[in-house]
Model the fold of this input.
Amino acid sequence: MFYKSAITSITTVAAIGMAMPLAAAQKNGAIAQDFKLTDMHGKTVQLSSFRGKTVVIEWHNPGCPFVMKHYDSGNMQATQTAARKQGAIWLTINSGAAGKQGHMKGPEAQKLVKEQGLNADHYLLDVKGVVGKAYAAKTTPHMYIVDGSGTLVYQGGIDDKPTANKADIKGARNHVAAALKEIKAGKSVSIAQSRPYGCSVKYGS
Done:
């Protein structure tokens, strides 16, 4: 199977949202850990259902200045649009716990997506932080790319300018966009890992 059957029980844990880590941080070159989360419409979304497609995973907190840098400028939306035009799936995950900055329920997320023009395929809610901790998501944004074989091929920042200044976007290398172009061209990702930057993910514990 595309994602190893050994993680079936792990997927179940993620689906019911138990507040426990799934595994250690994900490693590049290894099969990305499967998970299930509920999206802002209440629909269950499973990573392994996108077999054969490249998947971009983005950790999100609308109240974070670093996230606002990329959304207020339109940079994140443009990257999402370009990714989807290339046939990639984009999953935006909010692991903010109840009572923490950026936490949202479905209707709030729907409003935000509409207002800010998010172009993700799914906005997923990880309130107990199970998936975030499994992927060792540290910041918002924190980006991951899984190729069509299910292998994690990139993790880190969206670019190489770790600031909250929108003016820095113009001269930045967009690691996600570059990796997607390389994958589409059948090449290895030249920068497979970089330092993530932004606000800390607001886990409950």
The radius of gyration is 16 Å. Residues 53 and 146 are 8 Å apart (CA to CA). Helices lie at 8-16, 65-72, 75-85, 106-116, 130-134, 175-184. Residues 1-24 have pLDDT under 50 and may be disordered.
